[in-house]
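Ticket opened by: R.M.
Priority: normal
Category: complex prediction / small molecule

The reporter submitted a protein together with flavin mononucleotide and asked that the result be attached to this ticket for the collaborator who will pick it up next week. Submitted input follows.
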Amino acid sequence: MKRYVLAITGASGPIFGIRLLGELLKHAQVHLLISHNTFPIIAEETGLYWADDPAEKIGSHFATDRICFFEDGNMHAPAASGSFQHHGMFVVPCSMKTLAGIASGYANNLIERAADVTIKEGRPLLLAPREMPFSPIHIENMLKLSRIGVKIAPPVPGFYPRPDNLDQMIDFMVGKWLDQFGIGHDLFRRWGTKDNSNE
Ligand SMILES: Cc1cc2nc3c(=O)[nH]c(=O)nc-3n(C[C@H](O)[C@H](O)[C@H](O)COP(=O)(O)O)c2cc1C
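Result attached by the on-call engineer:
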């Protein structure tokens, strides 16, 4: 079975990471890293209160044992080491603080360290930076990472699948992120096709 690392950081839009997690679990084991700054935003934006005992609550929310959850202060987690094998890492959404930490190689918490290790080991890394507008500092950090092959894929919706509601717009974004890793899905209708079967 494949294995991915998914980090959810304290930008608006943790629902994107939560929805991505649901899709990844159909295919893979997921090492899930959620920054402590994110839990209040998850509560505020989704009504899910995961701060106390997140491993138990997230496991029962998704009814799976495929999730391995780690606190962002746990520098002993598997993803902190290059010897831990995985098929790539997503940071969805990615705050400007985590973006800066990854771009500078500061590795100040488990998420930044896991991204640093993913880069040094030459594994796929995708960031979904979320801020509006971006400052020149943010853009420089993104450019620096893009130049070394990190996928910079912010949550920017497309309207050609004619979304009827917010769920479909979120599915479009999740599908685009999965595409970057070659992970199959039927989350949106592709250009030139008639329905989500994409044939
Ligand atoms: C409700 C709320 C929304 C936020 N939205 C964003 C955002 O969209 N982008 C961002 O870069 N930071 C945002 N922040 C600030 C980050 O949470 C803050 O910089 C934090 O230190 C990020 O830490 P982390 O990357 O370790 O999760 C938000 C904070 C709050 C409380």
